[in-house]
Design brief:
The complex is a heterotrimer of chains A (268), B (286) and C (297). Chain B has 286 residues and is mainly alpha-helical. Chain B contains twelve helices and two strands; from the N terminus they run ααββαααααααααα. Helix content of chain B is 76%, strand content 1%. Chain C has a two-stranded antiparallel ribbon. Classes of the chains: A alpha/beta (268), B mainly alpha (286), C mainly alpha (297).
């Protein structure tokens, strides 16, 4: 039973693809990404793996233009989210960031109540009706498996939740805007193993409804949940995309020497 | 521990004891000075007497402090009502709206303003603001002038403390808010400000304490008439100005009454500082 | 972002956050507020310069006070001010440094004393200046019999600045890396050597910043000096003489001397310039050596 007023999906409900073409990213004089070209297929889970410092997180920030907020950051090349090239002049950043959701490595709920954490972004889209908001809140909390645990304390501070619960809350908060793509930046690395497993299962469950792009250090995790996998590596002081392909092919028959070495644990 | 170490430790302990005892000394002399008036005049007369004429021969002397209490409260309240929003707006502009170069210079200007002594603010009030107010309605030295100059004087401090409070909002919260497509003002109003609420409250409370305790500005621009003001354009005298004006020549119970005034001020300001410490949960001055 | 922590702590360029619909009103209001604040600053500056710039001559700085201050200079005033400052520093610096050393280096073993001292200093920092005027008048002028004198004024100021000096000194001492203390202990160095040879020299820049802060505060205070060091405009002969500070002179010229505005403006310029130089020096010092921790409130 859906309440149409709360659903934004009516307009463009299908998950979007991300096409990156010749992306260069640098912080001041230091180049972080060099000529990255890749296509993230819609509605699937794509994992990006690689050692620390090769620009994986920066890549995510380039997709929702959070790079704008970093002093001295320069981005060149093209990034298309769905049909829109997001680095064109006149791009509506607010609309972009509603379409592209992001979950960070360290859970960052607002210092507000659980309910307000979820309602705040939704209110900004213009939805003010209390019944709508409550219904949407419950829906996303159920989606992340948190509703049963918190339904009696929705008005209590979100910061009182455990790490795993906070991260699920952040995911719910991202989901409530019904984005077409969700970016995950090592979402499980700050969590204990049990919470990590719960979040991982949750992410896998998003397949089909959202395009998921996840940066992870955990090869086994990539193997478990990804449809496509990309390996990044630092080549000549900047990160580059070394290999990209279907999960089976990537893990069973890696093409690049680096990939073979990385997967066998010899390097990185 | 060598002997020299032991001696050093005792010297240091003695010096620290001097620091510790100082506050007792100050309050002690304040109380000592106030006791005669409290005994001879009685606390209720300070509030109920019809006027302030403590130097009149003893049977006709009156000690009504109410006009000065109202003067202090009115000036402080007026200043805080203005300083709160303006100081906050200034801090928000500096942190969230100004381009980096502008923000640097703006902060420098605010720091310069914060360094100007109150007597110079008072002087500027006398030569610039008071003539302007006088054109509205003479005399120019009145409650309104006092409120305005007090506002200008406290504004830099409020702005700086609020700015520091806004700076404690973790970047990851702001990043998360931006990633959710929240607009800049929404982030400021609904994420950043609630996150540093206690710091902002502390800023306001400390500013209030400064306003109540201020002497020179109100001495110079408020008119110093010890009568109950009926509008903002009337001259007033504050508790602080009262002490500054009369202490030099006051005798006996009159002088003692001024110590009572000082004690009242001390209690008020300390109550404010205490609540600021409670709200911020620890040291306010970093 | 997990890139080796390089950008997790960086300041964000918040001015590049996008504005929502209808937020332009807020933006204009905020910019307008900032512009008004800057105008007030310029107005004050203009007032002072307009009235006082022409009178700012060497004669003014060094000459004697004539005609109740309407003409002549501020030579004796400057001398009195420096003497008052001298008394204040002589009294406050040693006491404050000793207290700061206790709080920073010995507070574990002296728990009770340290706690009491800290609380009483916090209270002292909150006391309004006019109450110090009352105290100074009652204690230094009358009880100790100094009368209206530079000595009484300086001692009163010393009481006022003590909490801030101690805060700054304690911060500077705490900023000295613990490695030095551990190394000294491992070498069997005695406590007093550690303090005099290592801690104090290392903390010196921060202490200097604190000193500058204290001098700035002392120069700005007017009310306490009005009631403890008096009004005399003659060149002082000893610390028992009465003498007025620069701030008191400005007050007197503004309020009690008709026609004294010009010289009041010139004197204000001198005072403000002095304070600006001091404050800039302090900011520079505390940014370089204390990471900006000493806030001049």
């Amino acid at each position: 039973m859906t309440t149409p007023c709360c659903s934004r999906r009516a307009e463009d409900h299908h998950c979007a693809s991300v096409v990156i073409d010749a992306l260069d990213l640098s912080y001041g004089a230091r180049q972080v990404l060099r000529r990255v070209t890749m296509t993230v297929p819609p509605c699937g889970v794509t994992a990006i793996i690689g050692p620390s410092g090769c620009g994986k997180s920066s890549l995510l920030c380039a997709i929702n233009r959070l790079t704008d907020l970093i002093p001295g950051c320069r981005v060149s090349g093209t990034v298309r989210v769905g049909e829109t090239s997001i680095y064109d002049a006149g791009t509506d950043l607010i609309e972009l960031r509603r379409r592209v959701g992001m979950v960070f490595q360290k859970p960052n709920p607002f210092p507000l109540s659980i309910r307000r954490n979820i309602e705040l972004p939704l209110r900004e889209t213009g939805i003010r009706d209390k019944a709508c908001l409550a219904e949407a809140t419950e829906r996303v909390l159920r989606d992340v498996g948190l509703f049963a645990e918190v339904k009696d304390r929705l008005d209590q501070p979100a910061l009182r939740l455990s790490g795993g619960q906070q991260q699920r809350l952040c995911i719910a908060r991202a989901l409530v805007l019904e984005p077409r793509i969700i970016l995950f930046d090592e979402p499980c690395s700050a969590l204990d193993p049990i919470a990590s497993a719960v979040v991982e299962e949750l992410i896998a469950g998003l397949r089909g409804s959202y395009t998921v792009l996840i940066v992870t250090h955990n090869l086994a995790q990539a193997r478990r949940i990804a449809d496509q996998v990309g390996l990044f590596w630092v080549m000549e002081d900047a990160g580059e995309l070394v290999e990209f392909g279907e999960r089976e092919a990537f893990f069973e028959h890696p093409q690049h020497d680096l990939t073979k070495a990385y997967l066998s644990g010899a390097k990185g | 521990m060598t002997t020299v170490d032991r001696i050093l430790l005792w010297v240091i302990r003695a010096l620290a004891a001097v620091s510790g005892v100082l506050v007792l000394l100050v309050s002690g002399f304040l109380i000592l000075g106030a006791i005669p008036a409290l005994r001879h005049v009685g606390a209720t007369r300070f509030l109920l007497d019809p006027s302030w004429h403590p130097a009149d021969p003893s049977t006709r002397a009156t000690f009504g402090m109410l006009p000065m209490i109202v003067g202090s409260l009115a000036a402080t309240l007026g200043a805080i009502v203005l300083v709160g929003p303006i100081g906050l707006a200034s801090a928000i502009y500096c942190r969230f709206y100004a381009p980096a170069a502008v923000a640097r210079w703006y902060r420098r200007i605010i720091e310069l303003l914060a360094g100007i002594p109150s007597v110079v603010y008072g002087f500027w009030g006398l030569v610039f603001l008071v003539p302007l107010v006088m054109r509205l309605r003479p005399p120019g030295q009145c409650l309104l002038s006092g409120i305005l100059i007090l506002t200008f004087m406290i504004l830099p401090t409020m702005s700086l403390i609020a700015d520091a409070a806004l700076g404690t909002v973790p970047a990851e919260i702001l990043r998360g808010a931006a990633a959710l497509g929240l607009g800049r003002w929404t982030i400021v109003r609904r994420v950043a400000m609630p996150a540093c609420r206690s710091g902002l409250c502390t800023a306001l409370i400390l500013s209030t304490g400064r306003a109540i305790g201020e002497t020179m500005v109100v001495l110079m621009v408020c008119g110093n008439v010890a009568r109950m003001p009926r509008s903002v354009m009337d001259p007033v005298r504050t508790l602080t100005a009262n002490i500054a004006l009369e202490l030099a020549y006051a005798q006996g119970d009159h002088r003692s009454a001024l110590f009572v005034t000082g004690g009242l001020l001390l209690v008020l300001v300390l109550a404010l500082v205490l609540s600021a410490e409670l709200i911020s949960g620890g040291r306010i001055h970093e | 972002m997990s890139e080796g922590g390089t950008h997790t702590d960086a300041r964000l360029v918040l001015a590049r956050l996008p504005r929502g619909r209808g937020e332009w009103v807020v933006s204009w209001l905020l910019a307008g507020t900032a512009a008004s604040v800057v105008s007030v600053f310029l107005c004050i500056l203009a007032s002072l310069l307009h009235r006082g710039m022409s009178g700012l001559t060497l004669d003014f700085l060094l000459g004697v006070v004539r005609d109740a201050g309407r003409s002549g200079g501020i030579g004796p005033i400057i001398v009195s001010t420096l003497w008052i400052l001298g008394v204040c520093l002589l009294a406050a610096l040693p006491v404050g440094l000793g207290t700061a050393i206790l709080l920073a280096e010995f507070s574990a073993s002296d728990g009770m004393l340290g706690k009491v001292v800290r609380i009483s200093l916090d209270v002292l920092a909150g006391v309004p200046s006019i109450v110090f005027a009352l105290f100074g008048n009652a204690f230094f002028c009358i009880y100790l019999g100094f009368g209206f004198s530079i000595l009484a004024g300086g001692m009163t100021l010393a009481c006022m600045v003590l909490p801030f000096w101690i805060r700054a000194a304690e911060l500077s001492l705490r900023a000295v890396p613990n490695d030095y203390r551990l190394a000294a202990a491992a070498l069997g160095m005695s406590r007093h050597r550690l303090i005099t040879r290592i801690l104090l020299p290392t903390a010196a820049p921060g202490l200097l910043a604190g000193l500058v802060l204290v001098v700035g505060r002392a120069l700005s205070e007017t009310a306490p000096l009005l009631l403890t060091s008096g009004y005399v405009t003659r060149m002082p002969g000893s610390v028992y003489d009465s003498g007025r500070s620069l701030a008191v002179h400005i007050y007197d010229l503004s309020m009690n001397v008709p026609g004294g505005e010009a010289n009041a403006a010139s004197a204000s310029l001198v005072l403000v310039v002095l304070l600006v130089v001091l404050n800039s020096g302090m900011t520079w010092l505390s940014e370089r050596f204390l990471h900006g921790r000493v806030l001049q409130v």
